[in-house]
Amino acid sequence: DTTVKQNPRYKLARVGKPVNLICSQTMNHDTMYWYQKKPNQAPKLLLFYYDKILNREADTFEKFQSSRPNNSFCSLYIGSAGLEYSAMYLCASSFNQDTQYFGPGTRLLVL
Amino acid sequence: GDSVTQTEGPVTVSESESLIINCTYSATSIAYPNLFWYVRYPGEGLQLLLKVITAGQKGSSRGFEATYNKETTSFHLQKASVQESDSAVYYCALGESGSFNKLTFGAGTRLAVCP
Question: Is the pLDDT of residue A85 over 90?
Answer without folding.
Answer: yes
